[in-house]
Amino acid sequence: MGKNVAQKLIDSHLVSGDAQQGKEVNIRIDQTLTQDATGTMAYLQFEAMGVPKVRTKLSVSYVDHNTLQYGGFENADDHRFLQTLASKYGIYFSRPGNGICHQVHLERFGVPGQTLLGSDSHTPTSGGIGMLAIGAGGLDVAVAMGGGAFSLTYPKVVLVNLKGKLKPWVSAKDVILEILRRLTVKGGVGKVIEYGGEGVKSLSVPERATITNMGAELGATTSVFPSDDITKEFLAAQGRETDWTELKADDGAKYDETIDLDLSKLEPMIARPHMPDAVCKVSEIEGMKVDQVCVGSCTNSSYRDLMLVSETFKKGGFKVHPEVSMTISPGSKQVLDMISLNKGLSHMIEAGARILEATCGPCIGNGQSPPSAGVSLRTFNRNFEGRSGTKDGKVFLCSPETAVAAAIYGVITDPRKLGKYPKVKAPAKFLVDDSMVVPPAKDPSKVSIARGPNIKELPKQGALPESLKGKVLIKLGDNITTDHITPAGTWLKYRSNVPKYSESVFSAIDAKFHEKAKAIGGGFVLGGENYGQGSSREHAALCPMYLGVKAIIAKSFARIHKDNLVNFGILPLTFENAADYDGIEDGDELELVNLKNGLTSGDTVTLKNITRGRDINLKHGYSPRQVETILAGGTLNYTTAKAK
Ligand code: MIC
Ligand code: SF4
User: Fold this and answer.
1) What separation in Å is there between the alpha carbon of 537 and the centre of ligand 1?
2) Which pLDDT belongs to residue 644?
3) How far is C-alpha 438 from the chain's CA centre?
4) Residue 224 belongs to what domain range?
5) Residues 378, 416, 537, 561: which is the catalytic one?
6) For a pocket test of ligand 1, which of 65, 329, 543 has the largest count of ligand atoms closer than 8 A to its C-beta?
């Protein structure tokens, strides 16, 4: 039987397990990436494994999330720790200023046909060049760096069958927004989204990467494009033609679902506050006053995207509207360098745009928080409530085309009104200068790892007891994001300090949560659908674990977060009957009983609601490996016990 691209990638890396949908398989990881905000924990875990040098083909440690180094030593200390550790363990170090991990990885390191595991949920960006690129928690990445396999549920594969060509002023962001509109933020769970059809050849690599990047918002395992002549041209322009191999679906390859999308019929789309799937046509909300426009983030910060904005200003002689604050954050040093040399940058500065570093910046709430109740149009990928730093800020997600139109007119505007479309030609040669990537030390014994006082030890926990008893600490609704659980922004500098960062847990919902949890010795969290969507940050499991949270009982979970909970020995459990969610209230006293038997003999565990005097059946759905991990109290305990 013919295979699709996703199956070829998984099957060629299979270490163990049956390639059967829904079953857990283990795959070999060729490359890893980390970023600073998740990297410190990942490397502390890697160190704890006692492996002298990474065992991957390539591992890169990026500093791109928190580069401001404001308000004290913490952030700069983390960077020093990351740089010295990378040097010692055979890891390439991409210095702050070199760019956002996903953009740089696509440009300089990604290889079609290989696997990439990254401690960031937008790792699927490299799916744009035909990699199997998956986001995961730092601990899973640490295991992969140590040569261990990565476990995943063999996914369903969805074909997005593209036909036609995008019209002027409509771009890749509109494609993924349309798919989000159709599938929703949980429509991709357990699936790989594969792009095919004759429309594929009309999309450049940066456009493909915009689409695979934001597949993370579907909750998908990953997204992937074939590797074809366009991929080859892109790699050749990066001076990496020899990294190219062809990768395409076999004739007659089967898919579990097919979605047809005619690119020529697409219109400019926009996601309204506060979810990436709250999508409508730009034309439906035209005229709304805009306070801020931000162009950048790992979704839309390529040379193509920034030149499109620049050329629009230049060709039309436009300026930024006097009531709009516009920022530009380039995706990489390469992009910034190239637009500086060809004057693209000057045209944006001339027009009144504010230029930021080549980092995540406002996307993670690091600066540029919008004014109270302000409307912010961003080319980013997430618009969760409060993520921008302004609780009542209204963040909309759109293409660079729609962003620049709003910056010019001061109101949401269909970009097709801007006149002639400035087509941006892909450069025949990108400017290649890898001097901001520091190779590992030739003699690791000479490197000592710098540890500042902000780097605290990893919290530990013991094996799972036979029963778990405690109160419901908080009852939550659907789509709780990791930004709700452990916010970023001003808390970012405590990513390597779990005791301090734990004070942030659920702080936007209940400012006293951490005090309450600590005072009563932990308990349970109750969630709705898609609990833990968004980021791969394992702190959203680690910090609740530190506060004594024993289990999260929800209607459903996002993939990465569920894995992170298991990794840290917190039980993610779902309702056998979703209506039972209504039979548990905040403050109820609960007990999970006969845990060992429930976990090992089937899929059901019993929850006693002591307050209301009733028993509720919960499902775990763990693989045998996950059961053992949970029983051991988490992955570190499990792997240490196995190694003995
Ligand atoms: C995000 O976009 O939410 C982040 C910040 O990049 C996270 C990683 C993190 O929390 O450090 C992600 O997407 O995984
Ligand atoms: Fe950075 Fe935003 Fe991309 Fe996350 S989504 S990696 S914060 S740019």
Assistant:
1) 6
2) 67
3) 25
4) 5-265
5) 537
6) 65
Average pLDDT in the chain: 97
Residue 551 Cα, ligand 2 centroid: separation in angstroms?
28
Q: How confident is the model at residue 69 (pLDDT cuts 50, 70, 90)?
A: confident
Residue 620's pLDDT is 97
Best probe residue, ligand 2, of 335, 380, 486 (max atoms within 8 Å of C-beta): 380
> How many domains does the chain fold into?
3
> Does the pTM exceed 0.85?
yes
259: exposed, middle or buried (Cβ count in 10 Å: 0-12, 13-18, 19+): middle
Tell me how far the alpha carbon of residue 298 lies from the centroid of ligand 2, in angstroms.
6
Q: Check if 260 is active-site.
A: no
Q: Which atom of ligand 1 is nearest to the CA of 537?
A: 10
Query: Which residues form the pocket of ligand 2, taking CB atoms under 6 Å from any ligand atom?
Result: 65, 100, 120, 122, 297-298, 360, 363-364, 380-381
Are 491 and 386 within one domain? no
Within-domain flag for 423: no
- 382, 387, 484, 561: the active-site residue: 382
Q: Is 397 among the domain residues?
A: yes
Annotated active-site residue 120? The verdict is: yes
Residues 145-163: b if buried by 16+ CB within 10 A, e if exposed = bbebbbbbbbbbbbbbbbe
Residue 642 has pLDDT above 90, yes or no: no
Phi, psi dihedral angles at 488 (to 5 degrees) = -100, -115
Q: Return the closest-CA partner of residue 175 out of 189, 195, 190, 155.
A: 195
Q: What confidence tens digit (pLDDT) does each residue in 571-587 have?
A: 999 999 999 999 999 99
Is residue 11 among the annotated active site residues? no
Q: What spacing in Å lies between the alpha carbon of 600 and ligand 2's midpoint?
A: 38
> Do 236 and 318 share a structural domain?
no
Nearest to 541 by CA among 552, 553, 529: 552
- What's the mean pLDDT in 185-203? 98
Residue bearing the bigger pLDDT, 487 or 459: 487
The pLDDT assigned to 71 comes to 86
Residue 295 is part of a domain; what is its CATH number? 3.30.499.10
Q: What is the pLDDT of residues 354-413, one digit of tens each?
A: 999 999 999 999 999 999 999 999 999 999 999 999 999 999 999 999 999 999 999 999
Please give the DSSP secondary-structure letter assigned to residue 418. G
Nearest CA owner, ligand 1 atom 12: 535
Q: How far is the CA of 297 from the centre of ligand 1 (A)?
A: 11
CB 459 within 8 A of CB 500: no
Interval 255-267 mean pLDDT: 98
Q: What is the pLDDT of residue 37?
A: 97
The verdict on residue 439 lying in a domain is: no
Task: Note the ligand closest to the C-alpha atom of 360.
Answer: 2
Where does ligand 1 bind, in terms of residues with CB under 6 Å?
Answer: 37-38, 65, 120-122, 135, 364, 382, 488, 534-537
Reduced 3-state DSSP string for 605-633: EEEEECCCCEEEEEECCCCHHHHHHHHHC
Q: Are residues 115 and 226 in the same domain?
A: yes
Cα radius of gyration (the chain): 24
